[in-house]
């Protein structure tokens, strides 16, 4: 058990709240909210608690379906063992896998007298010295087809202006502010006050590009990755991603020192949170809700360079 202020916190040995979580459900001792956890000694993975069982099961199934479908098993003669009715779908899923964290399965922890379920995922902030992390929730609509009246109402009222005008909102971020040499965290309360007019400045602050002479090399690297995700969304007709986010991460220490490091080591742009992903039944449709948001996000980033 971890001790803090003389009180026992009900987490298993060696497991602690994930230090670089910027949004979503955050661990609250003494409640059912577990949020995202990590191993004290091994920062290569994180454990995302199921939260509502239906959400955890849906997200686990989503990751598992990609594992199964995107891989082609070959036999001794290197011939595919399974015939894919839809080769295009396999390509789409394979590409999607490159935009999301690696998935290492479903695990259970016993603590506080109960058993809890988690997804074991790649920690995208691993190896980043001064992590700047922003969660950008995509979509004008952030409730799924199973939402009841109450859920629809509560989702529609949250981040109203940004979601309506831009198709994205900011439920949280942290930035290592190069000017003041300190890490600052901003919760959903900050994001809820943003409007389409104030959003560009919030993003510039997160990117440490408020001055004209700021280094913008990371902005170009982020854009490059956003273009790939955008292209994928415009193509795919298999999923509707409700309430899903794009997680942008960069290392302010690299920016600060003008160090040369391969971009895949200090800038990451990944899609996360698939608890509300649903298949598109009618194959003539695209996920227009997600496309609207990512198009606007790309446009805003383009205006910075
Ligand atoms: N693979 C990952 N690597 C690093 N950080 C992550 C990863 N997945 C999630 N996070 C962190 O945890 C936060 C919450 O993640 P996520 O949205 O998946 O959880 P959630 O509890 O379902 O949130 P919500 O309230 O939106 O349902 C993210 O904003 C990010 O800071
Ligand atoms: Mg989320």
Measure the end-to-end span. Answer: 49 Å
Whole-angstrom Rg: 20 Å
- The assigned CATH architecture of the largest domain is 2-Layer Sandwich
- Total number of helices: 10
The counted number of beta strands is 14
Mean pLDDT: 90
Strand content: 25-35%
Give the CATH topology of the largest domain.
D-amino Acid Aminotransferase, Chain A, domain 1
Low-confidence stretches: 1-8
Oligomer state equals single chain
- Name the ligand types: adenosine-5'-triphosphate, magnesium ion
In CATH terms, the superfamily of the largest domain is Inositol polyphosphate kinase
Order of helices and strands: EEEEEHHEEEHHEEHHHEEHHEEH
CATH top level of the largest domain is Alpha Beta
**Shape type:** globular
Fraction of helical residues: 25-40%
Summarize the main sheet: 5 strands, antiparallel
Structural class: alpha+beta
Tell me the number of structural domains.
2
